[in-house]
Specification:
Elements (H helix, E strand, L loop, with lengths): L5 E5 L5 E6 L4 E6 L5 E11 L3 E10 L5 E6 L6 H10 L1 H24 L2 H6 L11 E2 L6 E2 L4 E5 L5 E5 H9 L1
Antiparallel strand pairs: 1-2, 2-4, 3-4, 4-5, 5-6, 7-8, 9-10
This protein binds zinc ion (2 copies).
Length: 170
């Protein structure tokens, strides 16, 4: 199914600040007493500070101009709420916001994960990032300068090159 998309609005620092639905969940056409035709479009917006609300855009038929205002969900009438429910846009928005929250949480975890210990880990051979540690000399080594072995009980062992060849010769 090709779902109409929602748009994520990012701040200057690349952090998402808002998710806007591209698809109106309700398009209401109506006319006033003197016969002017209006189109009201209702769209969902999720703001990471203000929460969920509905943006209503009003256009006079045949004109270019439009204006818009925002209301919270409890300010819209029951009929409009029913349109929202039928459109399925609430679920799509919810899913997108959940996805972004999850990414933010993962980023957050990586920011807070042992910032001091991690920064110091660089390969003692070449100086690049060292995700491994030699079990013999405890020096940090990168992927290229690590050798992976196993004990007879299939427990993983990581050596630096020097210690590995030293162990082999013993
Ligand atoms: Zn290295
Ligand atoms: Zn070593």
């Amino acid at each position: 199914m090709n779902m109409p998309s929602v748009r994520v609005v990012h701040g200057k620092d690349g952090i998402p600040i808002m998710v806007r639905d591209e698809e109106p969940f309700f398009v209401d056409r109506w006319s006033d007493e003197i016969g002017n035709e209006y189109i009201n479009e209702y769209r969902l917006v999720f703001d990471f500070r203000q929460g969920l609300f509905v943006e209503i855009t009003q256009k006079l038929e045949g004109s270019i101009g439009w204006f818009s205002w925002e209301v919270t969900l409890d300010q819209i009438d029951e009929d409009t709420l029913m349109r929202l429910k039928e459109s399925g846009r609430l679920e799509i928005m919810h899913e997108k916001v959940r996805e972004i929250m999850q990414q933010l949480t993962e980023n957050l975890d990586s920011l807070f994960f042992d910032p001091i210990g991690d920064r110091r880990r660089s390969c003692y051979v070449c100086g690049s990032d060292a995700p491994h540690e030699c079990i013999r000399c405890n020096k940090d080594v990168c992927d290229q300068h690590a050798i992976f072995a196993e004990t007879e009980y299939e427990e993983p062992l990581t050596y630096c090159h020097e210690c590995f060849w030293g162990a082999v010769e013993e």
